[in-house]
Every structure is written in structure tokens, then in C-alpha cells.
Design a protein that fits this description.
Elements lengths: L1 H21 L8 E10 L5 E10 L5 E7 L8 E5 L3 E6 H6 L6 E9 L13 E9 L3 E8 L1 E2 L5 E2 L3 E4 L8 E8 L5 E8 L5 E9 L4 E4 L11 E8 L1 E10 L6 E4 L1 E3 L6 E11 L5 E9 L10 E8 L6 E6 L5 E4 L2 H5 L7 E8 L9 E8 L6 E6 L13 E8 L3 E9 L4 E9 L2 E2 L3 E5 L4 E4 L11 E10 L5 E9 L5 E4 L2 E2 L6
Antiparallel strand pairs: 1-2, 1-6, 1-9, 2-5, 2-7, 3-4, 3-6, 7-8, 10-17, 11-16, 11-19, 12-15, 12-17, 13-14, 13-16, 17-18, 20-21, 20-25, 21-24, 21-26, 22-23, 22-25, 26-27, 28-34, 28-37, 29-33, 29-35, 30-31, 30-32, 30-34, 35-36
């Protein structure tokens, strides 16, 4: 049996090599992993990564993996059984191409019979973390999307917002040209939209460049504008704590074409957590220049987990600027008894048609250094619905980690079907009812499905008609209380 299995793998690798010679290194329908990392970082950090991938189909899934660099090596196969989840460590993946230490983008392509006419979605999440010796981890997660949906194209501009009240973080920006040569301009702007400096950048095919501490010396609230001049570029931002934790979290890359009049912040808090933790949320608002002739106002509405009546406050901004509201709940809503829930954001003058960008971060600030969870905000149409099911890859529940989620139903009352894809197959689905505007906290959510340890799982979410669901999920280290945000994946964006 072992000899036959080895022969099968060699034959599959030969097929992959033949396909590689006949097709481009990256197709738009391929999945593009930002970077598999096993490498030292600043201030004594050492970063590792894990790729969590789910097969939502009823037959075995074979993926052809290929590390993307100027000189390509041989591809390798990764297999995932039907209706299950697999975890691949950075050491395991890099060893398949002969590496022990690297930070390389990874292309994943359906291979063999997996390249079917109507392929099923493949929810995937990349975890990157700094592991402290005998003291737990501090990390973040990236969504793994198709190459088509994860790049900026020629003429597009995106903002990366930043800013910590303690000035204790650094922003690293990664840029990668997956298809062909590309060029970009990076404008460093003050919080009031004043240019500070310009960084021109040219990338050769499959070249990845990381600019570390790009806002060094810039004032609080400064941001990066990235404009693609030619080609297509995948861009990721990472905020890293300068404390001993070296905790990273994802800095959202917000396309200027994504401006909206309404947003939902899926979770905010100003409250104590387990094991002595205390979580507080900051709100980031950004406006485009010269798009409105009056002072733009944002109405911020807080909906509490306890179901108390919502309360609203007005936040003033300036065109072309960044406004940060630190400790947003205690700053805007000191009278609220329950300090956790969600925020609804809206232009205070809908008729004026002015729009804005939004992002949020929730932080725990113990003496040993901060740990943070990015909270990407939901635009209209990005909610999980009957027509647009969702998934969260990377659910874990064991001695080292727990996974919590906050659900908010912005639509009509209905039922939500939840299924967990474990490493050995799916659980029986469960159904929960949610009222209109209800907020539901699920702590240690894997325990809803199983009592055993869960090292890697994927949650599938299917709401009934009329529901509009936003979700904030975090993988929390039981030793450090670091909440690493888990991306919410929309199934329709995960197919070629």
C-alpha cells in the first residue's frame, strides 16, 4: 500500500510539472496565499504560520501548491478529504520545496479531477504568529482569496490606516506582483491629508517587497495611499507591537472605490475578559479629499449585547483626513451600562451622497505588552445572507486556544444553520433562532458541536431568507489572551 501511494504521488507531481510548463504560474482563479512564513523578525521575534483549508465538496480535493518567486521550483500536491478541514504548518509546506526558513507567497490550484466545471468553494485562512518560549503566541490571520479578488489593478488606489494612542506600533506593508511586472506609488499622508513623502516602486514578475516601519517619524493618524500605476499588485498591511509581544494584527487595505455611506463594526468592547484581560476598541474613519463641500458628520449608533435601546452620537471629520476615536465606547457612550456590542455607522446627511471608509481594532493592554484584533467592517451587501453563505476557517478549541464569535442580525428574524467541518469530517448541523437586530455571543463555539479537542475546523454559516448577518470571530490564546481575528469568508468569492 505504501509503495502504491508513493507511486501515485510521484505520478501526480509529474503531472503538476507538465501542467506548470504549459500554463502560467498564476491564473486569476488560483488561490493566492500572502506568504508562508518561517523566519525571524524584529526585537527577537520569530514568526511561523499555519494554513487552514477546508474541502466543502463531497469528493477528495487535490491542490497543486507552488511557491511564487522569480525562479520557480517544482509544484507539490496537497490533499483534503471530503467535507473536512486540514491544517498545514509552515515547516511542512516549506519542506516540500526544500526550504527551512523563508517568507514566500504560495499559489494553490485545483489539480486533476478537482478542476471540475462547477468547483465548490475552498475556505482558507492563513495564521501568522510570534511564539514566545513557554509563554504562548501572538498572531493574526489573513483571508486566502482568489488572485482575481485579492489584487489592486492599474488605476486603483487603497488606503492603509494606522495609529495607536501609545505610539507603540509599527506598520509593515507587503507588495507582490503575482502575474507580471508592476509599478506603484506609495504616498505617506498626515492625518489631515498633507503629503509627507512619496515612495515609487517597481516590481518584476513574482517579486515581493516588504517595507518595514513605513510610517516611522510620521504623526499619529498618518496613513499610506497606494496607487497601482501598471500591472496588478497584492497588498497587505501588518501592524506590529513594539513591545516584547511583537503582536501583529492586520491593517485593512481599503480601496477608495469601497467608500460607503453605511458600515457595521461587527464587534466593539470596553470590558473585562477571561484571565485578567481587558478589551477596548478604537474606531478609524477616513474620508476622500474634495468630495463634499460641508463638514462631514458620521452618526455612530451603539447596539449593546444586553438588548438595551440603541444610542447614537455624532462624530465630526474633515474631507481628506483620518479621524480616530480611541476607546470608542467610553469616549462616545460613557452612560452605557453594558460595554460590548456592535456599531452602526452612517453619513449624517444621506442626501448629500458623501461616503467614507471605516475600520476598527480591539486591544488588550496588559503590562507585558499589547495584543490586538483587527475588526474589518461590513459594507452593505457584504453581510452573510441566504444567497451569500459564509465560512470561517481556523476554528480551534483545545488546551492552548479557544474561539469566540459575535453574531449580529441586521435583517429580519430568522434561523441560522451552523455546520463545523472537523479534520475527520462534518458535525451534524445545528440551528439557532435570531430576532431582528439581535446580537449573539458564542464563546468557545466549537463546544456547541463537540466536547473533544478541535485543532483545526471550519464553520459554515447558512442563514434563512431575510437575515443579514455580520460576524466577528477570534482565535484567543489561553496563555496570552491575544485575540487573533479570523476573517469572515463569503463563499461566492472563493470559486474561480
Amino acid at each position: 500500500m505504501e509503495h502504491r501511494f508513493r507511486a501515485f504521488l510521484f505520478a501526480l507531481l509529474a503531472t503538476c510539472s507538465s501542467l506548470q510548463a504549459q500554463s502560467p504560474a498564476v491564473d486569476e482563479g488560483d488561490s493566492l496565499v500572502p506568504a508562508i512564513v518561517e523566519a525571524p523578525g524584529k526585537n527577537g521575534a520569530h514568526y511561523s504560520s499555519q494554513l487552514v483549508a477546508a474541502n466543502t465538496g463531497d469528493s477528495e480535493l487535490v491542490l497543486e501548491g507552488l511557491f511564487l518567486e522569480p525562479e520557480l521550483k517544482e509544484p507539490f500536491p496537497l490533499t483534503i478529504p471530503p467535507r473536512s478541514t486540514r491544517l498545514f504548518s509552515s515547516e511542512e509546506l516549506l519542506a516540500l520545496s526544500g526550504y527551512s526558513s523563508a517568507a514566500l507567497p504560495l499559489r494553490l490550484r485545483r489539480a486533476g479531477s478537482s478542476r471540475q466545471d462547477t468547483p465548490t468553494p475552498i475556505p482558507m485562512t492563513l495564521h501568522v504568529f510570534n511564539r514566545l518560549e513557554d509563554a504562548g503566541t501572538y498572531g493574526l490571520s489573513f483571508p486566502v482569496e482568489t488572485a482575481r479578488t485579492s489584487v489592486l489593478t492599474q488605476g486603483e488606489t487603497a488606503y492603509i490606516l494606522s495609529g495607536s494612542l501609545e505610539h507603540s506600533e509599527r506598520l509593515n506593508v507587503s507588495l507582490f506582483a503575482p502575474f507580471a511586472a508592476a509599478a506603484a506609488r506609495l504616498d505617506i499622508m498626515s492625518a489631515f491629508g498633507v503629503p509627507i513623502r512619496v515612495i515609487p516602486l517597481e516590481l518584476t514578475p513574482r517579486e515581493r517587497v516588504q517595507i518595514n516601519d513605513i510610517l516611522a517619524g510620521a504623526e499619529l493618524g498618518s496613513r499610506v495611499h497606494i496607487t497601482v500605476l501598471s500591472g496588478k499588485i497584492q497588498v497587505f498591511g501588518t501592524m506590529v507591537s513594539n513591545s516584547g509581544t511583537n503582536d501583529p494584527y492586520r491593517a485593512a487595505v481599503l480601496k477608495t472605490s469601497s467608500v460607503e455611506q453605511r458600515w457595521i463594526v461587527p464587534a466593539v468592547a470596553e470590558t473585562a475578559g477571561l484571565h485578567g484581560s481587558f478589551f477596548s476598541s478604537d474606531l478609524y474613519l477616513a474620508t476622500l479629499p474634495n468630495t463634499h463641500d460641508r463638514e462631514p458628520l458620521v452618526r455612530v449608533t451603539f447596539r449593546s449585547r444586553d438588548g438595551s435601546p440603541p444610542v447614537s452620537k455624532i462624530v465630526k471629520t474633515l474631507m481628506g483626513s483620518t479621524r480616530i476615536v480611541f476607546h470608542v465606547l467610553s469616549e462616545l457612550f460613557p452612560e452605557a451600562a453594558e460595554k460590548s456590542g456592535i456599531l452602526e455607522l452612517a453619513s449624517d446627511d444621506i442626501s448629500s451622497q458623501w461616503k467614507f471608509l471605516a475600520f476598527s481594532v480591539t486591544r488588550n493592554r496588559p503590562e507585558e505588552g499589547s495584543s490586538s484584533q483587527d475588526q474589518p467592517c461590513f459594507r452593505p451587501g457584504e453581510e452573510i445572507t441566504r444567497e451569500q453563505n459564509g465560512a470561517i476557517a481556523g476554528i480551534v478549541e483545545n488546551d492552548g486556544f479557544r474561539t469566540n464569535a459575535l453574531l449580529y442580525n441586521a435583517g429580519t428574524a430568522g434561523t441560522l444553520e451552523l455546520t463545523l467541518l472537523l479534520e475527520n469530517g462534518p458535525t451534524a448541523p445545528i440551528t439557532i433562532s435570531m430576532a431582528e437586530k439581535e446580537i449573539r455571543q458564542l464563546n468557545s463555539l466549537a463546544r456547541v458541536f463537540t466536547e473533544g479537542p478541535v485543532n483545526a475546523a471550519t464553520l459554515l454559516l447558512s442563514p434563512s431568507a431575510g437575515m443579514e448577518l455580520t460576524v466577528s470571530a477570534a482565535r484567543v490564546d489561553n496563555r496570552t489572551n491575544d485575540p487573533a481575528g479570523l476573517p469572515v469568508l463569503l463563499m461566492k468569492t472563493l470559486t474561480p
